[in-house]
């Protein structure tokens, strides 16, 4: 049986410096994407596979949400065997949008 992960296209990543502010804000405005970002912010880099998030959407919608986060420069992904691992691009994103992640990651009162 062939390794299916080898047939998957590598994800395309956008550097935060190439992202307009409104694109970043739109990516963070969705509740599912905000949950993904919050969970990644609390996890070690490259420790969370796409299937490890408890979000109320199916696989296709989850894939779309990660594509939006990649396009906004918030998330980087890499394939490791059958898993696609994720990391929040906190340092790079903060350099381009200082304080934005701090604001959206704060617990709401």
UniProtKB/TrEMBL annotation:
DNA-binding among keywords: yes
Matching Gene3D superfamilies: Winged helix-like DNA-binding domain superfamily/Winged helix DNA-binding domain
SUPFAM superfamilies in the record: Winged helix' DNA-binding domain (SSF46785)
An example Gene Ontology molecular-function term: DNA-binding transcription factor activity
Keyword entries, A-Z: DNA-binding, Transcription, Transcription regulation
Domain HTH arsR-type residues, every copy: 13-108
UniProt-recorded name of the protein: DNA-binding transcriptional ArsR family regulator
Annotated organism of origin: Kitasatospora atroaurantiaca
């Amino acid at each position: 049986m062939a390794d299916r992960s080898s047939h998957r296209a590598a994800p395309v990543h956008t550097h935060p410096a190439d992202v307009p502010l409104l694109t970043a804000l739109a990516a963070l405005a969705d509740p599912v994407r905000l949950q993904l970002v919050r969970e990644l912010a609390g996890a070690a880099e490259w420790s969370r596979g796409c299937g490890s998030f408890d979000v109320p959407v199916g696989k296709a919608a989850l894939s779309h949400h990660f594509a939006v986060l990649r396009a906004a420069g918030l998330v980087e992904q890499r394939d490791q065997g059958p898993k696609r691992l994720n990391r929040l691009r906190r340092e790079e994103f903060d350099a381009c949008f200082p304080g934005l992640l701090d604001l959206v990651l704060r617990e709401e009162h």
